[in-house]
Amino acid sequence: MSYQAQRYTQKKAKKSQKKAFVHGCSDKFRYRSKEMATEHLVAIRYHALAGVQQGALNTRIPIRAYQCDNCGGGWHLTSREDRYAIKFELAA
Question: How many domains does the chain have?
């Protein structure tokens, strides 16, 4: 195989790897399991809240982990509430 053919196949392989993160997953941390994501969630929240007590301003403190369908079933952390959670309010 010529040098140019090798370079072409390498570039093609890299493009196919990038397609797995088409929907904005490339700039997020990906965790392999829910347990790993939850461990990091607790650790990040602990350090972020300790920083807030010392005067640091954190606007994005993760509150939950979610499974991502775009990157092959990996898990991500988010500071947004679950949009599909059912919320009940008492009628006045």
Answer: 1
Q: Distances in Å between the alpha carbon of 79 and those of 17, 41, 45, 74? A: 27, 10, 10, 17
Q: Which amino acid is at 8?
A: Y
Residue 27 lies in a domain: no
Contact 61, 70 (CB under 8 A): no
Evaluate whether 70 touches 23 at the Cβ level (below 8 Å). Answer: yes
pTM of the full structure: 0.59
Tens digit of pLDDT for each residue in 43-63? 988 888 787 777 777 767 888
92 is a domain residue: no
Which residue range(s) make up the domain with 40?
33-49+56-81
Tens-place pLDDT, residues 17-46 = 444 444 567 788 889 899 999 999 999 888
What are the tokens at 77?
């952390």
Looking at residue 78, the DSSP 8-state letter turns out to be E
